[in-house]
Please model this.
Amino acid sequence: MDDKSFAYRAKKASGIAMMLAFLAFAVLPILWVLILSLRPATALFEPIWESPTNLTFDNFRGIADSGFPRALLNSFLTAGIATILSMIVGVPAAFALAKSRLRGKFVASWVLLLLRMAPPVGFVIPLFLIYINAGLIDTYPGLIMAYMTLTLPLVVWSMWTTFAQIPNELIESALMDGASLAKALVLVVIPAARPGVVAAAILGFLIAWNDFFFALIITRGSTVTAPVSIMNFISSDSVDWGSIAVAAICVTLPIIPVMVIANRYIVQSLSGAVKG
Amino acid sequence: MTTKAAGRASAESTRAYRNMLLPALIAVTAFGIVPLMGMFALSLTDYNLIKGSSGHFGLDNFFRLWQDRRFVNSVYVLAALSLLGVAFQVVLGTAVAVGLQKIVPKWKFARSLFLAPYAVPHIAVALVWLSIFTPTLSPINAFFDLFGITVPTMLTSQNGAIAAIVIADTWATYPFVMLLILAALNGISDDLDEASALDGASRIQSFFYITLPLLFPALLMVTLFRFIDTLKHFPLIFVMTKGGPGRSTQATNFYGYVQTFQNSNVSYGAAIAVFLFVFAAIVSFYVARLNVRLTNG
Model:
């Protein structure tokens, strides 16, 4: 009996040790960036345990005077507008795909997946050539349109699975009451599918906010987004690690509250794609 | 309602549905299908950003791919990064999800900590791990120096650079696997575990014979999703290694970027993109079919 409980405890302890190791892997790099952001340039290459109190907010002050805040604003604007436009266009379409008996739905779902999964290089080359000729390089509309190639298929795809779970009776009873289909969508279906709507908007925003590749190629100066702007802290002969750490924190911070609030919604929506 | 009225109503709703679909159809065509067509068209030409085009049309770019050792190398690099990365992400993500559920169910706070890396944008992920793999800066190197151990420099050796990118990618994306597996686990009843325990199965047996088979559809889906995503590897390579040392981390997507925007070979870059696209299309065809089957019960 004692033997068994010892074996059980040993197993339990090794399980917990394993989880602690995983947790360290998840959290320590984040802790490291926080430390890096607070270290003065003079102590950057000293281990933190040699001068643990040598901390400063200089890196934060320095970055406020750089072009980085403007880049953050650019990221917010372009990702936000692309997401809003994608929702306006994509939500009704997803509703039609989920509830109508229109033909070719499998083709539609495949095309949407293809667009989500196509290599960005493939989109960017033709867009780049079109933009050069149309004068859209380094403009907000150009960047927003490029982001819609990312956000629109994502929104339609995830809203489709969400709407598929809304019972048909709900729509039929609204139609019986004399509402038009569009009214039924806005007044009945969207409120009933609110978690999915929130998740789709957030996932759309995140994918555009995270983008590095499109912005690298089609922005130059005034519309540079935060992820591309960070690269300015790396020059051929020196790397401004303090500013990089602060900038990395700045691009991550806006996402954390969104993730915390939307965690449940996102799980529901993502698992909708797995379990239905 | 008479059948006539019902017929009219359904014709009306069909029209309403079509109107709802139309704007998205136009937008998807403009922002998705037109660029894709452009990619295919360009891949058949010999357009160069500086030299222009000779007007020649043909499959030359595709024949050239197979003789291009840098391209063949990029496919091997991609295979290494994708297979290793996805394997680690799926195993770690599943282990954390199962651990949170079965080993430490009371660690509610830990869930958001485990999720945290998923909030970090890819460019920041790349820079964080670049700093960790920079020997003069790295806390890991400093720590092992205390014991007189010299940590090998990762980014300057071929295998080390691959490993560095796989580690960074695993850190950033295992939470995606974890989220999906947690959701799938919630759908699996605890009764099954209890029943198998009564039948004398150990916890490990019940995991491998009961839980894992039930998780299989979710695991397959998440593996395919992650696999397709790894085909697009870019910020990690761009920031951490620039494709080096040599060409040891020059994966296909990155090589397409190099050919197009550094060597100005637009058409050849498009052909590389077509190759990746066809590959992704085949995989996503199976994802779509799997999704239809799973959502229909």
